[in-house]
């Protein structure tokens, strides 16, 4: 594959914008949309041959402890201080006062 494009959201101080990130063997290009259909190049970066771009990486897991009887309030309290990077992680939700189910697979 010579040129791969991904749709992303650019977080700017104003409002988030929909952008297109195109990765080719020699450069990374970020394009914005005018009138939602016309692409305009925002910036481009040259990539040296030793640069590795990993798209499918495993996200870190974040453990959330919430109360089952007060699910909305306890989940809001647990996620109140999250940054943008924390929202990209996988969540492992455990309920307070309950034991997890241990699954054993036959050998």
Automatic annotation (TrEMBL):
GO molecular-function term, one example from the UniProt record: ubiquitin-protein transferase activity
Top-rank taxon, per record: Eukaryota
Apoptosis-resistant E3 ubiquitin protein ligase 1 PH-like domain span: 2-65
Gene3D superfamilies, sorted: Hect, E3 ligase catalytic domains
InterPro entries (UniProt xref): Hect_E3_ubiquitin_ligase, PH-like_AREL1
Entries under Pfam families matching the protein: AREL1_PH-like
UniProt protein name: Apoptosis-resistant E3 ubiquitin protein ligase 1 PH-like domain-containing protein
